[in-house]
Task: structure prediction
Amino acid sequence: MIREKAEKILPAIGIDMHLKGAQYIVYIMELFEEGWEWKTVKTMILYEKVARKYKVTCGAVERAIRYAFNEALSRGNLRTISKYLDTTETQNRKLLESLYMNLIKYKTPKEHLEETRKETIQMLRFVKTEAERLLENLEKENPYDLGEP
Result:
């Protein structure tokens, strides 16, 4: 799930998916989603994990990620960038963390539709229950009894 979100958002902020750094960023987002321990490890350990998977050096991973983020910061849409990245600190780690936090908040149109559907079903069940209760009360009362004035 996070992979699809990342692959959609990275180009929107100015990181082309053909860049190696983009692939590494997506993989790190998956690691972050996999477990909390990946969010707390030193950045170098993250780089080592990525480097092993892609058979490159840690330095190459760091440079590729830095290059991808620099591309976004220098050429991307600032409004979209500020929505997904905290640019007060431009260290790779801070950018990766802010991207992850904003990705988990981001809802795809499909997720938004599903959430809206669930809320609508819940609301309709409530309305149905209330309508049944009101109908039951109306049926119990004598509609021709005008009562005492």
User: Anything to note?
Assistant: The mean pLDDT is 86. The chain has two domains: 2-105, 108-149. The CA atoms of residues 134 and 142 lie 14 Å apart.
